């Protein structure tokens, strides 16, 4: 049986909600990325500084992770879409762990439901990987059942990978 690790970043809990759901599957482990530098949680700076940090690929100061991604065949990258791309925590993770040769699945959360560009960017940032399924979730905390239905399909796809 192949092992799967979901590596995710969540600023406001939506991607964490997806990760909590997927980690109920016995073959899926999850590790949340944490960083030193985040935008303010509220106000103007939230979108402005957060969006800028993603577009400019700023170094967020990734904290060490506990699990070893090398022990897994399948990696699920989970993240919120920030300014149409992946957030700095994911960029910093991929810089440290290029994930070459692994099956990559993507779970992208957004408020618009439009994650195509962010997903494409995440694929471009993992050139040595085998790109498998991707799901786009619209703020899972607002409609958990819709998100869980898509995640169930993803879990089935991962089982067959
Ligand atoms: C800095 C920032 C930038 C964002 N940019 C976008 C965006 O470009 N498109 C979009 O649909 N949602 C955008 N959002 C909304 C989040 O992607 C969305 O609410 C997501 O579900 C949050 O996931 P999280 O709770 O795991 O952080 C942005 C949110 C933040 C904080």
Task: Describe the protein.
The protein has a single domain (4-160), classed as Rossmann fold (3-Layer(aba) Sandwich). The chain has helices spanning 14-22, 44-55, 88-96, 116-124, 144-160, and strands at residues 4-8, 28-32, 74-80, 103-110, 130-138. Helix 4 links the parallel strand 4 and strand 5. It starts with a strand and ends with a helix. It is of the alpha/beta class and 161 residues long. It is built from five helices and five strands. The radius of gyration is 14 Å and the shape is globular. Helices cover 35% and strands 21% of the residues. Strands 2-1-3-4-5 form a five-stranded parallel β-sheet, with helices on both faces. The model has no long low-confidence stretch (mean pLDDT 96). Flavin mononucleotide is lined by residues 10-16, 39, 46-47, 50-51, 80-84, 109-112, 114, 139.
CATH superfamily annotation = Flavodoxin domain
Largest sheet: 5 strands, parallel
Poorly predicted spans: none
Which architecture name does CATH use? 3-Layer(aba) Sandwich
CATH class descriptor name: Alpha Beta
Based on the model shown, name its key terms:
161 residues, alpha/beta, 5 strands, single chain, binds flavin mononucleotide, globular, Rossmann fold, 5-stranded parallel beta sheet, 5 helices
Write the layout of secondary structure elements.
Layout: E1 4-8, H1 14-22, E2 28-32, H2 44-55, E3 74-80, H3 88-96, E4 103-110, H4 116-124, E5 130-138, H5 144-160
Parallel strand pairs: 1-2, 1-3, 3-4, 4-5
Helix pairs in contact: 1-5
Bound molecules: flavin mononucleotide (FMN).
């Amino acid at each position: 049986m192949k092992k799967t690790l979901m590596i995710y970043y969540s600023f406001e809990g939506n991607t964490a909600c997806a990760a909590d759901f997927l980690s109920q599957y016995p073959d899926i482990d999850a590790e949340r990325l944490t960083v030193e530098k985040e935008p303010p949680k509220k106000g103007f700076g939230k979108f402005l500084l957060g969006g800028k940090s993603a577009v400019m690929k700023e170094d967020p100061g990734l904290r060490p992770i506990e699990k070893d991604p090398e022990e897994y065949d399948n990696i699920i990258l989970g993240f919120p879409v920030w300014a149409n791309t992946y957030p700095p925590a994911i960029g910093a993770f991929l810089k440290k762990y290029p994930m070459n040769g692994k099956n990559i699945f993507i779970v992208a959360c957004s408020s618009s439901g439009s994650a195509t560009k962010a997903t494409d960017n995440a694929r471009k940032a993992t050139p040595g990987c085998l790109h498998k399924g991707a799901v786009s979730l619209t703020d899972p905390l607002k409609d958990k059942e819709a998100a869980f239905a898509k995640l169930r399909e993803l879990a089935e796809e991962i089982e067959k990978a």
